[in-house]
Amino acid sequence: MSSSSAHSSSSSHSGSSHSDTLLQLENVIEKHPKDTLPHSADALPHLVDVPSSHEDTEPENSPIPPRNRSAGRDVHIFNASDRSTSIGGLILTNGITNANLHAMTEIFVIFEAEYILRNESDIIIEKDDSTLLPGNYYIDSPSKSLF
Question: Domains of the chain (ranges plus CATH)?
């Protein structure tokens, strides 16, 4: 039976969409010799290509940042009045100074007045060219700040 007669006879049945699918497969087989049929395994994503659904990991090329963006950071910034909630941080690299930390903090925190950065030992971090050390830093501001 030719493919056109198969199509016309099957279109009168209620399962015409199923017949149309079979017709399309017959057409693929007629157009491609046995050795050149597309291999279904090549058309489907392999398990290693499928991104993990683990909540803390995202594919490297994903435009969506992971939920926990602080992974790998060794400098963490907190509001001094809430020392348990990190508001920012960075991965420390060579050349980062105390002045750099102050400048970065001023990018994402809007201060209405002067502020002080302190480390975990409550030592004031001056706005100078001293090498920044890993650790937790706390923003202490006498006036209201917008985080």
Answer: 3-49 (no CATH), 75-146 (3.10.20)
